[in-house]
């Protein structure tokens, strides 16, 4: 019996997960009358208690690989940021642990412990961010907030408008 390399298993799991999330997605409805292609959302579903993306799924993805949940939520700029910050902190923990083991210097142990706390906080924030982003997925497209700032006849006019599409 031959051993399957770890990278092959991880790649297979990622591909199966990607295929599953693509198949589970609802088809998008497009309004052909608009000048620009605009996605029409079912606002009743959007504002219901049932989110469009799975918050637990996004959180579990980020638990496996920080940034994966952000990528799932289509927050493409957050994914490499979350991964990089967590990877940097893991490296710092490992680096100071090795230095402490080699030298026995207590300062290295204290730095390792400090970076371990930072890593735990960063990891928890990555999970919470993925969960919240999945729960609020496409919410900003249903709610548009406008503002009015006008200066006429030596008087400022200020207003806020909330548009709800349904």
Mean pLDDT level: 76
Major sheet size, sense and barrel closure? 2 strands, antiparallel
- Percent in strands: 15-25%
Our count of helices gives 7
The secondary structure category is: alpha+beta
| Rg (CA only) | 23 Å
Walk me through this protein's architecture.
The protein has about 170 residues and is α+β, with helices and mostly antiparallel strands. It is about 60% helix and about 15% strand. The strands form two sheets. A two-stranded antiparallel ribbon has the order 1-2. A two-stranded antiparallel sheet has the order 3-4. β1 and β2 form a beta hairpin. It starts with 5 loop residues before the first helix and ends with a strand. About 10% of the residues have low confidence.
Short description:
With 166 residues, this protein is α+β, with helices and mostly antiparallel strands. The protein is built from seven helices and four strands. Helices cover 59% and strands 16% of the residues.
């Amino acid at each position: 019996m031959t051993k399957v390399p770890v990278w092959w298993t991880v790649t297979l799991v990622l591909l199966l997960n990607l295929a599953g999330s693509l198949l589970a997605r609802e088809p998008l409805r497009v309004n052909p009358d608009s000048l620009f292609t605009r996605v029409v959302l079912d606002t009743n579903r959007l504002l219901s208690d049932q989110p469009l993306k799975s918050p637990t799924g996004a959180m579990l993805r980020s638990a496996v690989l920080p940034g994966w949940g952000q990528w799932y939520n289509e927050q493409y700029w957050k994914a490499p940021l979350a991964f990089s910050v967590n990877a940097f902190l893991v490296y710092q923990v490992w680096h100071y642990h090795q230095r402490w083991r080699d030298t026995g210097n207590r300062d290295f142990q204290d730095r390792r412990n400090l970076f371990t706390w930072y890593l735990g906080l960063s990891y928890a924030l990555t999970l919470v961010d993925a969960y919240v982003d999945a729960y609020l997925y496409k919410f900003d497209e249903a709610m548009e907030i406008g503002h009015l700032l006008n200066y006429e006849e030596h008087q400022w006019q200020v207003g806020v408008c909330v548009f709800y599409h349904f």
